[in-house]
Amino acid sequence: MPDTHNSLEDRQSRGRQLVEEMLGKETAAETIAHWEAISPEFSGYVTEFLAGEIWNRDGLDRRTKSLVSIAALAALGRTRALELNLRFAIKNGATRQDIVEALLQIAPYAGFPVTWDALARLDEIEPRDASES
Question: Which domains does the chain have, with CATH numbers?
Answer without folding.
Answer: 1-57 (no CATH), 60-133 (1.20.1290.10)
